[in-house]
């Protein structure tokens, strides 16, 4: 048996046996603990947005990160899972064939929902232009556990909805259902009204991004140091980064050090050669134990799925490591947006696109080894007062938006992109992020032949 909880301890105290593994409740999704106050501060957060209180917004986003990584009370493979690892994934939430990882009832998992896929947004531009989606990933170092959904978000997606302006109830967890909604709008329905219902305020959607560390030996892991430290400043995907960290699966701790303090020149040269063979542009400049990243050992099935998605060989016993995560919370009408990426040691030069600024001292390892950028409005300040100049609020993730399949990704803005999520006729991405989109009114993006998905690309990309 690989999943444990207080059930085992209670059974031992009572002197009774446990039910067979197939019959017992295993991984059950749990909410972020109430002490983090996620989903209860909408008016306060909106006030911070209006008044451009960036310090308070960052503090709140760090609370989201801490809450997601709080102990869940459930252990798997001998390690206690963080809250987010107990949540359902795409296969459990959407109308696809029932995942064999899902027990009867649909909410109890035998294993964490890690459904490795190539990030869907890499294909959006190709599909928009009518081109075939490339067979090979644009990056050799990226893969995503496509989406994770908090209990409130999962329940919302899986439940029939009453939609303002339409009669009866509608499903939203398949393309067929979404197309039915899009065809049901009465003639003349204003574009701003053509939308599914809004998610509840305590809903969260996640996009965790994974890579691989081999079970033995040292693995060169690219480290984001900004576009200037890339061989492609326009599309600085991870395999173009010039700096690598030698990750040691046999070591523990939370320290990243110059490679020369731990490794010989011969070892570094051999690692540089292996990085080049893996089509990476980096040289090894640092050394760190695998514990500087959130990690877990891959099962044979997970390794096979990850290898297929990532096209980097993975085997059972290798480590899946978390290198990034998009986090969207429906605490305010246009959602609150924060994205995290692996950043051990010092911040990226120029703190671009984010930093560890304001990170609470109480945040434990490995979660303190991630930097963050936030995006609560298209422009900052969101509301300009006399004499203030607004500028677009750039926020992107180096592991995702640097891909050439995303227009102007390193100048992108979460709200401007996600506001366009929907089904029907209309573009799916802004061509650039030089100015804000007139939300729900710009006829270039919001048409009377489309239905918005409340900022959720996960819903807009629902399976057939």
Could you write a compact summary of the structure shown?
This protein has 464 residues and is of the alpha+beta class.
Describe what you observe in this structure.
- The structure is a single chain.
- The chain is α+β, with helices and mostly antiparallel strands and 464 residues long.
- It is built from 11 helices and 22 strands.
- 21% of the residues lie in helices and 20% in strands.
- The strands form 6 sheets. Strands 4, 5, 6, 7, 10, 15, 16, 17 and 18 form a 9-stranded antiparallel β-sheet that branches. Strands 11-12-14-13 form a 4-stranded mixed β-sheet. It has a 3-stranded antiparallel β-sheet with strand order 1-2-3.
Number of helical stretches of at least 4 residues: 11
Gyration radius over CA = 22 Å
What is the residue-averaged pLDDT? Answer: 88
- Please describe the biggest sheet, giving its number of strands, its sense, and whether it closes into a barrel: 9 strands, antiparallel
Query: Which strand-content bin applies to the residues?
Result: 15-25%
According to DSSP, the number of beta strands is 22
Structure class: alpha+beta
């Amino acid at each position: 048996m690989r999943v444990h909880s207080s059930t085992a301890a209670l059974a031992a105290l009572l002197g009774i046996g446990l039910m067979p593994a197939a019959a017992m409740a295993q991984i059950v999704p749990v909410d972020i603990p109430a002490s983090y106050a996620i989903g209860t501060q909408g008016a306060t957060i909106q006030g911070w947005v209006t008044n451009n209180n960036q310090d308070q917004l960052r503090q709140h986003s760090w609370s989201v990160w801490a809450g997601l990584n709080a102990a869940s009370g459930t252990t798997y493979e001998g390690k206690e899972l963080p809250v987010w690892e107990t949540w359902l994934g795409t296969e459990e939430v959407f109308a696809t064939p029932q995942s064999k990882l899902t027990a009867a009832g649909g909410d109890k998992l035998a294993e964490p929902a890690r459904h490795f896929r190539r990030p869907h947004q890499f294909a959006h531009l190709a599909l928009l232009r009518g081109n075939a989606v490339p067979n090979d990933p644009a990056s050799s170092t990226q893969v995503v556990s496509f989406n994770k959904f908090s209990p409130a978000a999962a329940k919302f997606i899986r439940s029939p909805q009453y939609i303002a302006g339409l009669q009866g109830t509608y499903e939203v967890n398949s393309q067929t259902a979404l197309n039915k909604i899009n065809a049901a709008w009465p003639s003349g329905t204003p574009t701003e009204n053509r939308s599914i219902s809004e998610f509840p305020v305590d809903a969260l959607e996640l996009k965790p991004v994974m890579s691989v560390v081999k079970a033995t030996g040292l693995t060169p892991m690219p480290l984001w140091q900004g576009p200037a430290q890339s061989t492609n400043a326009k599309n600085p995907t991870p395999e173009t980064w010039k700096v690598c960290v030698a990750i040691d699966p046999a070591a523990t701790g939370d320290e990243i050090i110059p490679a020369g303090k731990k490794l010989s020149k011969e070892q570094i040269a051999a690692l540089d050669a292996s990085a080049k063979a893996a089509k990476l542009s980096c040289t090894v400049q640092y050394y760190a134990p695998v514990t500087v990243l959130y990690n877990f050992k891959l099962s044979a099935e997970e390794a096979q799925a990850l290898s297929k998605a990532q096209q980097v060989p993975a085997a059972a016993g290798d480590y899946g490591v978390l290198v990034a995560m998009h986090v969207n919370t429906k605490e305010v009408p246009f959602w609150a947006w924060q994205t995290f990426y692996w950043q051990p040691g010092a911040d990226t030069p120029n703190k671009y696109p984010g930093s560890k600024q304001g990170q609470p001292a109480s945040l434990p390892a490995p979660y303190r080894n991630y930097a963050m950028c936030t995006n609560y409005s298209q422009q900052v300040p969101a509301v300009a007062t006399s004499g203030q100049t607004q500028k677009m609020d750039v926020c992107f993730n180096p592991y995702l938006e640097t891909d050439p399949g995303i227009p102007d990704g390193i100048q992108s803005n979460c709200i401007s992109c996600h506001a366009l999520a929907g089904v029907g006729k209309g573009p799916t991405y802004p061509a650039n992020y030089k100015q804000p989109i007139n939300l729900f009114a710009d006829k270039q993006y919001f048409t009377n032949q489309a239905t918005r998905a409340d900022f959720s690309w996960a819903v807009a990309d629902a399976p057939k």
